Amino acid sequence: CGGEWIGVEWSGGAGAMNEPGRGGASGAGAYAPRHAPGGEPAPEGVPVGIAPQQQQHAHQHWPRLAHGVQQQFSVPGYGTQAGYVGGDVGLGLHQPAGFSRHLQPSHMQAQGSQYTREYPSYGSQTSFDRTYAGAYGAYPAREAQLGSKSGGTPASGTGSGGTAAMHGLRRRDNAQPTVGWSQSGASGAFASQDSDSRFHALGNLFVMLAAVKNHAAAWWKQISHDFSLARAFHLYIRPQTAIYILMILVPCFFLLYAESPSAKSSRSAEALPDAVSKNVLGVSEALDHSASVRENVPIAGAGVNGGDRPGTAVIAPGVSSISIGPTEVETISTKGGVSLVAVCMNRHSTLEKALPSWLSVKGVEEVVVVDWSSSPPLEDKLRGTSDPRLKVVRVENEPKWVLSRAFNLGLTMATRERILRVDCDYELHPDIMAGHPLDGAQDQPLSQFYAGNWRNAKNENQIHLNGIVIVRRADFWKVLGYDERIQTYGWDDEDLYTRLEQFAGLTRMNISYDYVAHIQHDDTARAQSGVRFVEVEVDFNRVLLGKLDKWSRIMLKEEEMKPSQYDVVTSSGGYVVLRSSHRPDGLIELTPESFAREAWNTGLGRRLHDEYGTPWDVMVTMGTAQKEALLEQLMKADIERKKFSVDGGEDAEASELAPAGVVIVHVQHGLGNRLRALASGLAFARAARRGLVVVWERDSHSGALMGDLFNTTAARVCVLDKFKPRWPFQEEVKWDAAWTKVHAYNYMETEGEGSRKGEKIANEDGTLIYFKGAYKMESPLSVWQNENNALRELLPYIHPEVAKLVSAIGDVDWSTVIGVHVRNRRLTDDIDSVDPTAAYGKSATETIDEWRAKSSYQNFVPRMREEIQKKADTKFFVASDTVAVLDKLKAEFGDRIIFIPRVCDDRDVQCVRYAFADIIALSKTRFLLGSGWSSFTEAAERLGGMKVYTAGRDF
Length: 955
Prior knowledge:
By secondary structure, the chain is an alpha/beta fold.
């Protein structure tokens, strides 16, 4: 065709990339070697596919090649990576770039592909030019050749001996246009760009006539391997061969005519992007925003934010869409220097502080800031910034912050060899790049990258520096960047670092925190709204990700796994606005709901156990809502402890070092006793800055759970209906070390085993306190007024069924009502199946019975008459443990008696609800005529705060 040949590429259709047993049905592309004018010569030739009927010939004359193929990873079916299986395995051979040299065997392609560790099942991958091939078509990554998206689709003519062809144009200054062609079973095209940063070849697929299929094998047989290809043209011209040659030459001459000198002169470098944007060659528009095109297109006009500087183009004119992923961005050639990439959602104030330090970093050639739907746009804060290195990419209409997608977009827009990836709240030292050198030249393997490491943090603020990264751009895309399935807070950084180590073969080096600082803010300022449990989110994503396939090229072949895609809304200078046209599914969408719930629950438990010392046995009966409520309490307690230490409290040093602890309050006996112990536990937890767990079990004393009386979920109280561990917890400590930090106090003396009522409770950091009792905790941190205030804070959360009973009383002027509580029953008649002496002890039983004898309803009647004489409109709200008492007092005082009608005076759920409604009503009265030694009377007093007069003592 004249001029200089680019080279020839054969694959797929001639059987080179066949799956064993399937002939030529699999049309995966091979590779085209680097050919840079004036540079290092490419490896000898390009791969040539051998039809199955010719493989025996190949085995005889190119034994080293066949041997090289056998050395691969034994993954058949994908180009030259296939193992040698029978006669249906395609072999990739090298053919010289020109006609004047003999065919020569070479096993370097097969061996070279071993050098690329990552994805052995994707065609030939050689170390010479970082070439990738296979389902994505033929393209050498370093030379910026792109395989079309349909590169892995077999052409209709593909089969054993079937052919399809690809042709390309090549431009070079002051040179005649040249043509190369390839024989391929893939329906893909390629475009190459070599080291002088100009377009040199564009490819377009031509499907050859069906007759080629009948002559391809004959053509090869007529050319002996020890003859040059040039001699073959002269010595073996036969009719069918002539047809074959003409079918090649006709499109070649057509292309030469189309690329005549006049036409060539009209296609200047400046006009090239327009031609590409028409997509006339079937090449993705992603070519339009390659580094060279962007940097060679001067764009006049305003700067990023309307300044007077000329803006640097973020993308070339005419580009309508941008795609993320290796098939689009991996092949963009890069220049030396550093691209600083940051992504922000809101964070306007921190960006203002951080940006000057970014621009001061030595070696930074460009600063790419991705504005992830900030409101208002970050452009307002950047207005007036005149530094030409600044490029701003805004993405509109994103409903939530997704770090993985945002940074992949930022790295797509970056054009420099080295990447400095930062968060918007990082301030940098000017010498950070000098302090973290990346070894190896651009064309040599890199052995390390740098990343933040929370384990090296000297304080809590430095923990947030885990996201900073210094890495070569090529290595970032070698592992496909961030996993875009991670769309909530946590694990995105660590996942990337792990893949850089495992799949790119790099060594992780720690960033020195002498070169970076975190602009402090609390977790409420995080871009992800609704992030409540930072560490739990990390564990959650880690667990879910571990159940899915690795973020890899194989996975990305699936349509639903495509990385993000964006439409260009506007573009002006260094400012571009995009809108998502495709969002990949996140981990939650890709994971069964049941497993996601289990993973979240496990993450909560791990945090409570590992950081706050909560034994696993305690959490056996703790649901997700309870764990969340407890963790919220503990996180708030941590904040209070830190604030207290700053304020200079006595335990400032200890509270700064130790996390908040947990106090478990295991309430006992009847409703009044349980409310007393609960009030004491609430007050203690608040004063000690601890998280509270309430154990409220159903038993003979109370058939109602705490959840039957309160909306505990709305109140954010962690309540357990069952408690697996059993006093004195001797077995539990054998398998869970968390029990060694448990300080247990049991006031229920009848249980023995060291139980002792009234034991002083010590509040020591680093411990979990377990308290079991029907009484208040003996501690200066639990005092009467604080206990009552804490209990009253639960009143807005009373159960709807209880509220309904209270409202049934109707409209009452409570200022005229006196409360009356009659504790009428003796202990022997109180609770079925409960032996009072065994339950309370002999002494306590005798005391209780003494006071109940003084609380007979007859003892209340004289005092009630006195109150009527003092004030004629006096009424009484009466509560009693015996329904008959209500009827007797009603007969005595008529309409002056108010009560909640019921037929229940037992201990089942509904009876206890009636009792709780009585307590609430009593708490509303002017004052209370109560029973002595009664926790029920005490509960009404705690909630109401009124004066109490006790039967047998005050009247």
